[in-house]
Amino acid sequence: MRPDTPAENVDHTAEAARLERTAGLYPEDAEALLLRAAAHLELSGDRPAAAALYDRLLASDAELESPYLVRALKASNLWEYGHEAEARAIIDGILAAAPRDAAPWVIVAESLEAHDELEQAHETFTEAVRLLLTDVSEPPAPAHPLLFGRHRVRRMLGAAHDEWDALADSVHTLPITLDELHDPKRVWSLGSENPAELEAEISRLRAEVGAYRTALSRPFPVAVLHWPADELTELLEAYPSLAAEYPSHAEHLAAIEAALRELASSGTPNLGTVPGTVPSYEAFAASEGTTPDDADLLPQYATTLAARGRALPWPPQRSAPCWCGSDRPYGECHGA
């Protein structure tokens, strides 16, 4: 959701300006691009400018994909620079609407937690997991921060483990347990003069930072281009020379899964698929001053779509719909 690169390593103001310019070129992707621009402005310290971008999105005539996420980010940002009353009013509206997307709940609950409103943060996390995860066989990845955040707040409140905490433990993958990561007494160990205790705490903090970055950072994925069946048919009818790249749609899908598995086995992180369309591909070719039948253009097109926030993370949850668009669970389709 947000970049987390330290300000000393990135010119966040310049990056925000670049993303705003890109949003002007690709209005269909303006929401994703402007949210990232606002995040850079927050990291640069220019919170009023970030608030202006959130307002710009909310005032737009275009229908937003995640309106409650935009509102939640705006509330979190406002609270950080002194507009608590307005932030709380926005938060109350989000909670009353009870969105079916995990991201706004995470932002709201973490904002409450950051301002020591632990009881309210706990209530928000709990309401979210009940709403989104009741009778769900496998929690989707976007909901994991809800489980982890609820576990963290309950540890600070001294609450006993319950079934949701057990579920959080079951989806946690780091070598250090959630109980260790979220132990409120850990901070006292930082004052120890025992090198072994300090080294252990540094290891825990590194794991916690890693979990935080995994949850909040969304760098551009290494994306493989995916042509839906109708788009591939249209592409090959218009540009037959590309048939050498795509002998058939079934082979195209199999090649995507194979390539992603090979990249994953080599340790490449943050993989994804990015769906292409013939009109946007033709427009991209024109912008590059070449013709669409140039096969060398295909990976550049995929990278550009990924940079515009079009990529879908791979692999999906085994129970989630397959990336290929078949509507079958991934575990029964290309994940089999």
Task: Give a description of the structure.
It comes from Streptomyces hirsutus. InterPro entries: SEC_C_motif, TPR-like_helical_dom_sf. This is SEC-C metal-binding domain-containing protein. With 336 residues, this protein is mostly helical. The chain contains 16 helices and three strands. The protein has helices spanning 12-25, 30-44, 47-59, 67-80, 84-97, 102-114, 118-133, 144-157, 163-171, 178-181, 186-189, 195-216, 229-238, 249-265, 278-287, 297-307, and strands at 222-226, 271-275, 312-313. It has a three-stranded mixed β-sheet, sandwiched between helices.
* Structural class by SSE content: mainly alpha
Name the average pLDDT.
86
Largest sheet: 3 strands, mixed
Spatial strand arrangement across the major sheet: 1-2-3
Sum up the overall morphology in one term.
globular
Q: Report the β-strand fraction as a percent range.
A: under 5%
Count up the helices.
Answer: 16
Low-pLDDT residue intervals, each spanning 5 or more residues: 1-7, 214-218
Ends apart, CA distance between termini: 30 Å
C-alpha Rg (nearest Å): 22 Å
Instruction: Spell the H/E element sequence.
Output: HHHHHHHHHHHHEHHEHHE
Number of strands: 3
Helix content: 55-70%
List keywords for this structure.
single chain; 336 residues; mainly alpha; three-stranded mixed beta sheet; 16 helices; 4% strand
In short:
The protein has 336 residues and is mainly α. It is built from 16 helices and 3 strands.
